[in-house]
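step=encode ok
step=design start
structure_in=
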């Protein structure tokens, strides 16, 4: 995605309630973010191969990982306290998806803004499901 388009998407996200998401040139720079309305805060610890973000949602640890053609969002709300070790919904809250795009490994090079959109959707789904379950 061209830099101008990335900047426009960043501005649109920040106007929608995103506290901070700088556009970084170095994929190893940590990029913090926070969405108060979702009780979500975290940071991208790697922005390419894999795209990684970690943080908390409603005081529970979460992990987002995107590599090759797939991504995974996991919240440690069960007996396993480490979301990196969650791979199946029976272990905790886990959502997976596939990315179709240009190149052989589109998920490995997902734009930070696109990853944040997925994290936000998964966070909303997590909050909706935990409210439904009465947690």
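sequence_out=
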């Amino acid at each position: 995605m061209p830099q101008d388009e990335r900047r426009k998407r960043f501005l649109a996200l920040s106007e929608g309630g995103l506290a901070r998401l700088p556009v970084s040139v170095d994929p190893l720079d940590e990029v913090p973010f926070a969405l108060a309305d979702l009780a979500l805060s975290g940071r991208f610890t790697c922005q390419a191969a894999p795209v990684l973000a970690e943080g908390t949602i409603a005081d529970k640890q979460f992990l987002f990982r995107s590599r090759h053609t797939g991504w995974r969002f996991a919240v440690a709300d069960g007996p396993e306290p480490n979301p990196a070790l969650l791979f199946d919904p029976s272990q905790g809250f886990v959502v997976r998806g596939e990315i179709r795009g240009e190149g052989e490994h589109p998920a490995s090079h997902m734009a930070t803004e696109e990853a944040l959109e997925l994290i936000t959707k998964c966070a909303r789904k997590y909050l909706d499901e935990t409210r439904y379950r009465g947690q």
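step=design ok
step=annotate ok -> The CA atoms of residues 56 and 68 lie 25 Å apart.
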